[in-house]
Design goal:
By secondary structure, the protein is mainly beta. The chain has one domain (2-59, 88-119, 155-353): Porin. The chain is built from two helices and 16 strands. It has a ten-stranded antiparallel β-barrel. It has a four-stranded antiparallel β-sheet with strand order 3-2-6-9, with no helix packed on it. The protein has a two-stranded antiparallel ribbon with strand order 7-8. Strand 4 and strand 5 (105-123) form a beta hairpin. The longest helix is centred in the first third of the chain and has 19 residues, at 2-20. 37% of the residues are buried.
Length: 354
């Protein structure tokens, strides 16, 4: 936590360094024109912006269990299917402040955050086997327990929280009639947290012996990184008030991943006789990337003091969202590795320049 606070403080503190590096008399022109959109109609000023979006965390592959429906007879079919929480769209938000110069340069600081959770619960069908995927199986000296149930029961909640802090310098230029291009370079701090917690049972909830061999399972993955971000955004003016545009951005980050998982017997029988298990991973020599893309349409007021935009964005977080606590020894049904998560959704943006 202390390292995270220090990293964010570093980003904020560098604002003054970047602001002081802007030459007061910068008049360099590239292409046809280099003013306008950077400061808003060729004027300098402070600006605020806010985005609200309906965002979905895709490709989390947060598998809680695998159910194996067994038909052990001639002509029967064994069917396996994973239990994955269904993620609904949740509100995410971005808020920022900046200063734009009349020559097309601007400096901004922004914060983006997402938080969502989903729960999955159920019984394995009669005659099936349910393989457990949260928490390392418990080795009792001769066998593993806490790896599966027959037919089995599960009730777990997965929560995902993500945060971005961006400090960026950007320059806007008109390369052709009504066609604008913005280049930006800056620092980015990213944090990804994913936690899963809940209960398993070797039997289903309708069985008379339910609760005798139960387990409390939990796991946590956190990525905490900082690095550089480069981006480019293009827009085309359809009229004096309307424009369409899109952009791409790339972040190259370094930091650490911290993961842990546990399995604790909680049943009336196994809590007395069985041990618990715990595993943790801390790796502070990791790197990751984030790739961003966005498309949208914008309405601008006369004088470009107010903007209203609607669009779509997608952000692919690689390595920073790796799940390091899956497939421990004793896992009955190993899963594919998961090292990336994508956030995408539709957004509504507001911009105001003082």
């Amino acid at each position: 936590m202390f390292q995270r606070i220090m990293r964010v403080a570093t980003l904020v503190g560098l604002v003054s360094i970047f602001a002081g590096s802007q030459p007061a008399d910068a008049k360099y022109r590239y292409g046809k024109y280099s003013g306008g959109r950077g400061g808003g109609g060729g004027e300098s000023g402070v600006f605020l912006f806010f985005d609200a979006s309906l965002t979905n965390p895709r490709n989390t592959d947060a598998v809680l269990a695998t159910i194996d429906q067994i038909q052990d007879f001639g002509g029967g079919t064994n069917v396996q299917f994973p239990v994955i929480p269904i993620w609904d769209d949740e509100f995410a938000g971005r808020v920022g402040i900046g200063y734009g110069w009349s020559n097309g340069n601007r400096l901004s600081l922004s914060f983006w955050g997402y938080s969502g959770d989903q729960t999955a619960a159920g019984n394995g069908p009669s005659g099936s086997t349910t393989y457990f995927h949260v928490g390392p199986p418990i080795f009792t000296g001769g066998d593993f327990i806490g790896d599966s149930g027959s037919p089995g029961f599960f009730d777990l909640t997965t929560e995902v929280d993500a945060t971005l802090v961006d400090l960026a310098w950007a320059r806007t230029q008109e390369l052709a009639d009504s066609f604008w291009m913005e280049w930006s370079l800056g620092l980015r701090y990213a944090n990804y947290e994913e936690t899963t917690a809940g209960d398993y049972d070797e039997l289903n909830s309708t069985d008379a012996a339910f609760g005798q061999n139960s387990f409390a399972a939990a796991k946590s993955n956190e990525g905490d990184m900082i690095g550089a971000r480069v981006a480019v955004h293009a827009s085309y003016e359809l009229s004096s008030h309307w424009s369409v545009g899109g952009g791409v951005g790339f972040s190259f980050l370094d930091g650490e991943l911290t993961s842990s998982a546990s399995m604790n017997p909680t049943g009336t029988v196994n809590s007395v006789a069985a041990p618990s298990s715990f595993a943790s991973v801390v790796d502070d020599s990791r790197s990751g990337t984030i790739r961003d893309v966005d498309l949208g349409v914008t309405w601008r007021s006369t004088g470009d003091t107010f903007r209203l935009s609607f669009g779509w964005e997608q952000s692919l977080w690689e390595a920073i969202a790796a799940d390091l606590v899956r497939n421990f020894p004793g896992t009955a049904a190993p899963l594919q590795p998961r090292d990336s998560v994508t956030f995408s959704g539709y957004k509504l943006g507001v911009y105001y320049r003082f």
